[in-house]
């Protein structure tokens, strides 16, 4: 039983943006038939008119580092391994709007390389850390810190399954890739591999966001914005916001800060 959580508009550097995550909702039942029949929802923030997303296989980097972040309350986002037992995702995926609190860590699961009910590894979260600069009730001004680090009860991969973090910000025009578990292809990973960095936007306090023109919609929150450096895949940022049209923004990973949250 899968549905979509309500998203809400945000303004960042003059661009209308939307938080992009999905939740399970009772009463909305769908039959998954591979990836040939997407949901075709009435609105897909972040998707352009040509929709260049494609299904990918999960057998090698960068895809085998990516997985589905699921909560026992129905939340669903994307995440990726940065160490065998450490996952990065979007902090807003863990925020409970009704109670104005973060979800308990033991209610969060990571399914690495998830594909149509199968996955390479599963682990429950024991604790997570959120950047001290992030405020889920003020996303527009703190989205640069919309990142959460999940610590798993057991390794979900080896050193061959992790994505290194890029040491700095990309340049405008750099080619990037973005893939996640999105609302209209929820059982597989889809990716836009032909997109670019379109801007480095800064809020009033000077903190950056990486703007891109990748096709990605609800459910892709927490996915890595990928680039290549010296012939290897690296994670540039965490997907957190979608434009009302094509593209969105990622919170950069180059200045990660964390504080204890959700013990």
TrEMBL record:
The keyword Protease applies. GO terms for molecular function: serine-type endopeptidase activity. Its EC number is 3.4.21.-. This is Serine protease. Keywords: Hydrolase, Protease, Serine protease, Signal. One of its GO terms (biological process) is proteolysis. Residues 24-263 form the Peptidase S1 domain. It comes from Acetobacter oeni. Belongs to the peptidase S1B family. The keyword Zinc does not apply. InterPro entries: Glutamyl_endopeptidase, Peptidase_S1_PA, Peptidase_S1_PA_chymotrypsin, Peptidase_S1B, Trypsin_dom.
